[in-house]
Specification:
34% of the residues lie in helices and 20% in strands. It is α/β, with parallel strands linked by helices. It has 2 domains: 127 residues, Nucleotidyltransferase, domain 5 (2-Layer Sandwich), CATH 3.30.420; 155 residues, 2-Layer Sandwich (Nucleotidyltransferase, domain 5), CATH 3.30.420.40. The strands form 3 sheets. A 5-stranded mixed β-sheet has the order 3-2-1-4-7. Strands 10-9-8-11-12 form a 5-stranded mixed β-sheet, sandwiched between helices. Strands 5-6 form a two-stranded antiparallel sheet. Helix 7 packs across helix 8. The longest helix has 25 residues. The protein is globular, with a radius of gyration of 20 Å.
Length: 314
């Protein structure tokens, strides 16, 4: 790893790279990018629940990136599910899935394997938000809401150019806002949550067992299945109510929507925009833009790299 840890000055003509590593349930996605967001080199490695093997795989993917870049490593960021510790050295809470990352100090672990660099750690949805705001669908915006629609509903907030993490790191769990006070509690005890109204986690319950994925539901709805259309329209109304509620809280320029459900394309975005148009408060006539995410599965890795850059210069 010839480039690792090479110092540089402001006069150095060789632009340093930031490495971003995103640990997901299936794969580790990693990128190397320059400070302007260019020259993205990408690699993946499988994720494993065995702690030492996971660290070895992260080291391996770092080596793959380092072998391909044409400059030194200036910053390293890492994202994963869970609540990040306030000092940014580890995930302090992650239970139920991928709990091997909990309390794992990545700076120390990599140093023990010969890689000397401060590693900045943050939540994966927070990282995706930063990625989309840096070079993705919200590029140039200072106030951003991100929603990821998949098995669950995640998200993130950027207010006045700063990622909002909150006191414990809970900020941005946007799927757990309540839309029905009489609804069933979700996995974090929120009644009638946005997550339960649109996430794949409840699709079987919401369709009396007919469908096991939103993709199948949307296919049936677009092919004229009246029951599927009813369920999908209700889910979109719920999403629209969630979106306008978040607009009232955060006053964003742009609402970015990603995740597997967003792959429905016009079947999602056209009716969603219509529903939001009926509900959004627009005192000056201006509307928040609702756009699809553009960075795909590497959004977290890209945002982790950006986060490390910004934290290192504070």
């Amino acid at each position: 790893m010839g480039h690792w840890g090479i110092g540089h000055s402001s006069l150095d003509p060789i632009m340093p790279y930031a490495l971003g590593i995103d640990i997901g349930g299936t794969n580790i996605k990693a990128i190397a990018a320059k400070p302007d967001g260019s020259a993205l080199v990408r690699h993946t490695e499988p994720t494993t629940a065995a702690r030492d093997e996971l660290i070895d795989n992260v080291v391996r993917v770092i080596g793959q990136l380092d072998a391909e870049i044409d400059g030194p490593v200036g910053w390293v960021g890492l994202s994963s599910p869970g609540l990040a510790r306030p000092d940014g050295r580890s995930i302090q809470w992650m239970q139920g899935r991928l709990d091997c990352v909990q309390d794992l100090d990545w700076t120390t672990e990599l140093e023990q394997r010969g890689l000397s660099h401060r590693v900045w750690v943050l939540n994966d949805a927070h990282a995706a938000t930063m990625g989309e705001a840096w070079i993705g669908a919200a590029r140039g915006a200072k106030n951003v809401v991100l929603l990821t629609l998949g098995t669950g509903v995640g998200g993130g907030l950027i207010i006045d150019g700063r990622l909002v993490t909150g006191c414990l790191g809970r900020a941005g769990h946007l799927g757990h806002i309540s839309l029905d006070i009489d609804g069933q509690p979700d996995i974090v005890k929120t009644p009638g949550s946005l997550e339960d109204m649109i996430g794949d986690c409840t699709i079987a319950a919401r369709t009396d067992g007919r469908f096991t994925s939103t993709r199948d539901l949307v296919d049936a709805a677009t092919n004229g299945d009246a029951d599927a259309q009813r369920v999908w329209e209700r889910a979109i109304r719920a999403l629209a109510c969630g979106v306008v509620s978040l607009i009232n809280v955060a006053d964003p320029e742009v609402v970015v929507i990603g995740g597997g459900i967003a792959e429905a394309g016009d079947a999602l975005f056209a009716p969603l925009q219509h529903e939001v148009d009926q509900r959004e408060w627009r005192p000056t006539g201006d509307a928040a833009r609702i756009v699809p995410a553009t960075l795909g599965s590497f959004a977290g890795a890209i945002g982790a790299a950006r986060h490390a850059m910004l934290e290192s210069i504070k």
